[in-house]
Design goal:
Elements: H1 9-31, H2 33-36, H3 47-71, H4 74-98, H5 101-125
């Protein structure tokens, strides 16, 4: 009988925390964008449209991560963390282009965490 092994609890906890974090960012962008975007003129034409698009991206990622964590699905968690990795590679390139060191450092750290979680999720079931 080929039964899949359960995911380690620490992976589920980290995934759940990331899901809550993404959902929180989404809500902050919708209801208090000035708390996230201190240096952006929110009254400029088209800015709130972009803020809501960003909020929708964060909400979608948080929801998908929460759902895959709840389902304890290795393929879904792997795909979620691959998306996370691609998203933070994009953030790294933006940080480099904008010469923003804090964004570069954050993106590198999150890329390493995402890659580590992809490895951990897949390794946990291949033991």
């Amino acid at each position: 009988m080929n039964q899949s092994k359960p995911l380690p609890v620490w992976i589920l906890i980290v995934s759940g925390l990331f899901a809550v974090m993404e959902l929180g960012v989404s809500l902050s962008l919708c209801f208090a964008p000035e708390s996230v975007l201190e240096t952006v003129d929110l009254s400029a034409k088209g800015v709130m449209y972009l803020v809501y698009m960003w909020a929708a991206r964060q909400f979608a990622l948080g929801f998908i991560l929460a759902f895959s964590t709840f389902k304890r699905s290795v393929p879904m968690l792997s795909l979620s963390y691959i998306f996370f990795l691609v998203m933070f590679v994009g953030d790294l390139l933006i940080g480099i282009h904008q010469h923003e060191n804090s964004m570069i450092i954050t993106a590198i750290v999150m890329c390493l965490i995402s890659a580590g979680l992809i490895y951990a999720v897949n390794r946990s079931v291949n033991r």
